[in-house]
């Protein structure tokens, strides 16, 4: 069943190839044909994510190229999406991008709402928090469950609704060097899973029923005091952002050569009073630093590209609430959500939000192959293939003192009548904190007019602590970077 989205996508790509008017020789493909005027259409939003399930809905990406002199750069781009997944993850998003509205500036506006009924939560500091597969392992054949270990499919989940409004601007200082600034607000509405809603979607299958009485990891962290009362329900965080970018890429969507590097600071405030009355919100004001370096090397014209990305995000001052540490800051919002680290937007094959810490570093390495080009009517397509390796690690861990945690959990067990065993949840050796999380995989690309790219990736994590299974497929829009 998990292979179905990939099969559908593969058949779609083969169908496009079969109906192509003509195959374009390498000499012609190296110089893309010019696109002019408007290019738009409403398409079904068909996606799959190992963490979010099969997604259905509708999207439209409207491009305006004018007389085509700047092609494949567009003058205006408007992206609209509305979709929902089988794992109760929704997307409502509007994104506008232009380089020609304000002289020497690129402007990006974004409004997003993401309801997530079962958001992933695996604890703090990556490998320092143990992942017990069978606590959340569910099989339709109930007799195959390990009943003595199984807790709930929602054991590593909580409810999170995410809201974002953002405006980012980039100003050309001189060739390749740009100044960046941005403002926005991030809203998080968090609670334990809505078991009534989730159970209402189950029809004639009692094995999938979720018991509200089962305490998940999110509930335990609150009871143990690892998640403060002032952050357990989320909050609203306006932010400002400023930095510098050096960009010599020849293309934005799939560069064939050049460098992209940025360094920027993000200051986030905290308005949590709607949940917590007169509690001091200032404790969650914080400053973060992000540094990213991307390099694209043409090995053989635009046919074989070696690309890699290295980045880090770290807390400079203040205190960042745990739920914001799952958000990877970026100067320009292209994807619906940048989550770090773990998942299809950062470390493919690793479970979403597996690495939750105050600071982390990561790298993605890819070989990109442009296999062949073809036309359908007036649209220009190409099929591509990529192989990749992803790696990430904690750089600024949460301070988890072993003695304090053991004493706290023991006291909570006595008070609440529980039997939680500390060693089932935590690994306190320092090497477990900083051990890197790694994965590798292969992807298939179908692109239209150089900018609209359908991406199908499969990835596997190197460590069983990072993955539920090997069926880690992702069907998304665009390249990872």
Kindly summarize this structure in a few lines.
Helix content is 12%, strand content 43%. By secondary structure, it is mostly beta strands.
Top keywords for this entry?
single chain, 481 residues, mainly beta, Porin, 16-stranded antiparallel beta barrel, 19 strands, 12% helix, disordered N terminus
Task: Describe the 3D structure.
The chain has helices spanning 4-18, 26-29, 195-200, 217-223, 273-276, 402-416, 430-434; strands spanning 23-24, 38-39, 42-44, 47-49, 53-64, 76-85, 90-98, 105-120, 157-174, 177-191, 234-247, 258-268, 286-300, 304-318, 359-376, 379-396, 437-448, 452-461, 472-477. With 481 residues, the protein is mainly β. It has one domain (4-477): membrane protein fhac: a member of the omp85/tpsb transporter family (Porin, Beta Barrel). A hairpin with a 3-residue loop joins strand 13 (286-300) and strand 14 (304-318). Residues 1-30 and 273-281 have low confidence and may be disordered.
